[in-house]
Amino acid sequence: MRISRVTVVAVAVVLAAGAAVPAGAQCPSVPNGTFDADVSGWANFATWNGSLGDPVGSDQVGPVNAGGGGFTCGDSLSSCLPVNAGDRCDLTAQAYVPAGQPAGGSGELSYFFYSDGSCSSFLSASAVATVPGSQQGSWVALDTGQVTIPAGAHSARIILNVCAPANTSMTVDWDNVVSAAYRAAVPALGPRALLLFGALLALAGLAALRRLRG
Ligand SMILES: [Ca+2]
Question: Is residue 7 domain-resident?
Answer without folding.
Answer: no
